[in-house]
Amino acid sequence: MFPTFRLSMTWLHTWFGLVLGYVLIVVFFFGSLSVFDREIDRWAIPQTRFAPQPMPSFDAMLAPIFQRMKPEVDELDAARQRVGGPLPATMPPLNWAAYTTHRDPVLAMYAEYAVTNNPNDPDDHVHGHVTIDPRNGQLLPDDQLKIGSEFFYPMHIGLNLTWKDLGYWIVGLAALAMLAALVSGIVIHRRIFREFFTFRPRKHIQRSTLDLHNLTGVVALPFHFFFALTGLTIFAGMYLPVSETMLKPQAQAAAIAEAKSKGLAFKPAGVAAPLASVDAMVREAKRLWAARGMPGEVGYLYVNHVGDRNSYVSLFRAGSDRVTLVGQAIHFEGTTGRVLYEEPPRSVVSSINDFLTGLHLQHFEHWLLRWFYVFGGLAGCVCIATGFIFFVEKRKRQHAKAGTGGARWADAFATATVTGMLIATLAILVANRLLPAELPARGDWEKAIFWGVWVAAFAHAAWRSASVRIARVSTAWFEQCCVVAALALVAVLSNWVTTGDHLIKTVANGYWPVAGFDLVLLAVGAIATTAAVSLARRQRALPMIQRANDEPMSSNDRGTANA
To answer: Which of 280, 294, 293 lies closest to 339 in space, CA to CA?
Structure first.
């Protein structure tokens, strides 16, 4: 037990922040990158470097592509294991979907197919997806990794750990710990207003890092609290899946009743019927939206019960001018094209949920606010990183005298999580530009390079942090900052060499998805260079009294330190 409530909050803040801070800084960093995930995709896939396009014609372009689509190979392999034998020769499509945003030049298309011979699950299904150039319908190569939306964004929400959704649960636990750390931090730092204006960069490391930790924590406190809370809210259905477990019959009955109230068929009729002109439905949807005073384009198109008499088409208005993702859905009868149901204004509870979800995922069209999101996320990274450094600096002398390695390993994990994560991120970008375009499974190679480089960065940090055991400064920080600076420059140059899209060209043409990302990479290189110079200067300027105190300890305790 602790003698005071404040001391108990200090313990909670310290250890929750240390143990789960390694997860939180990853979530913050890749969340910041995910704000511009579509733009990073443009940088990573040069074939997609053109202006955003509206939803193309379904009748002329999308329908033939949907008909040629096939299930994913890995999903077929998993389905064979579920069935326990061969799959049916043909798997009819259940539904089709197409999705785009105001930032997407390309169009993502999805399909779901029925697995009709699974005796344990009559509703078993598999999926297929393609990405096309909506100007001509050309398919983009399947093995090209959309680094922003298919790697950085999943890293933010689930650490790219898909086994039993383990990553989502780890991130959820870290978000809960973050809320506790924020509240305990407020209790610890009672003079919040003063700390808002306190930063002494010329003081010793422990003092300056604590000032920066407090400053970034206070400045972005509302941002951090809001996004931790809304992140948990968005995935509440995964953490508490009552509709798929205890209340599954009730949830099924509610879904059937809701579909019936809207005039939408919940199940297919089992009678084949052709699909009416979807383009005509799109024109009617646009007319109805304009009549409501909210003209717009289709952002999401969904065809349910494909090829069946009960088919219906749902068109959702692109919501770039709203906080919510998509909305104002209109449902059409698939065989005739008549309007079945227009979604009314949402209830208060649903509107609040949509607002919070949309504000967290920020697909709306507001570039200044988007940059505020980036700065808020990076402020969280700085807050956590300075917390790591303060923890080590406060304890490394005590641990060195005791002959324990706690501070050393905390420093090694901190280095690998901060600069090591940057190195791995830049490495996947460099690999994206330098790997041969015809390399089989190119995206898998890029992912392997990312994880391999990150493991190597941790090994380097663990090796070079040995000096922390004798209360010295680890040289891993300096060395990895140098690597970050070099890789950032290599990434910009490799984009120029492999695509011809150098900064002068992209800025002159106003193509900011690529120009902006190159500028950010150069800024990262400049910051890493400045940090490396500062670390080298601090190392050279260690006070003589510290050297005098360190030398006897390092000589007398050398055997313990090397143990």
So the answer is: 280
Secondary structure percentages of the chain, helix, strand, coil, to 5: 65, 10, 25
In this structure, which amino acid lies at residue 202?
A: R
Q: How big is the CA angle at 212 (ends 208 and 214), to the nearest 5 degrees?
A: 115
Q: How many other CB atoms sit within 10 Å of the CB of residue 267?
A: 10
Phi first, then psi, for residue 462 (nearest 5°) are: -65, -40
Mind spelling out the 3-state secondary structure of 112-138?
EEECCCCCCCCCCEEEEEEEEECCCCE
pLDDT in tens, 7-57: 888 888 888 888 899 999 999 999 999 999 999 999 999 999 999 999 999
Please give the torsion angle defined by the CA atoms of residues 120, 123, 124 and 130, in that order, rounded to the nearest 10 degrees.
180
Q: In terms of DSSP H, where are the helices of 435-472?
A: 442-464
0.85 exceeded by pTM: yes
* Interatomic CA distance for residues 464 and 483, integer angstroms: 14
> Which residues does residue 129 pair with via DSSP β-bridges, in sequence order?
110
Longest distance between any two alpha carbons in the chain, whole Å: 89
- Asked if residue 453 has pLDDT above 80, the reply is yes
Segments in 297-404 forming alpha helices (H): 348-361, 367-402
In angstroms, the CA 154 to CA 27 distance is: 10
Sole residue written with tokens 């984009």? 495
Helices (H), 35-72: 37-44, 63-68
Spatial distance between the Cα atoms of 49 and 500, rounded to a whole number of angstroms: 12
Q: Closest Cα to residue 424, out of 388, 389, 448, 444?
A: 448
Q: How many CA atoms lie within 13 A of 129 on its CB side?
A: 13
Structure-token pair, residue 555: 């000589």
Radius of gyration for the chain, computed over Cα atoms and rounded to the nearest angstrom: 27
**Token pair 């733009």: residue:** 39
Distance CA 51, CA 229 (A): 35
Which two three-digit tokens encode residue 222? 């509302």
240-246-249 Cα angle (round to 5): 120
pLDDT band at 558 (very low <50, low <70, confident <90, very high): very low
Neighbours of 531 (CB within 10 A): 18
- What is d(CA 220, CA 379) in angstroms, rounded to the nearest whole number? 7
The arithmetic mean of pLDDT across residues 466-473, rounded, is 83
∠ CA 460-30-229, nearest 5°, is 125
Unique residue bearing structure tokens 């996320």: 377
Residue 351 predicted with pLDDT over 90? no
> Which pLDDT tens digit goes with each residue over 502-541?
999 999 999 999 999 999 999 999 999 999 998 888 777 6
Backbone angles phi, psi at 329, to 5 degrees: -70, 145
Among 182, 213, 183, smallest CA distance to 198 is for 213
Instruction: Please give the DSSP secondary-structure letter assigned to residue 235.
Output: T
Query: What's the sign of the alpha-carbon dihedral 236, 240, 245, 249?
Result: negative
Which tokens sit at 261? 């109230």
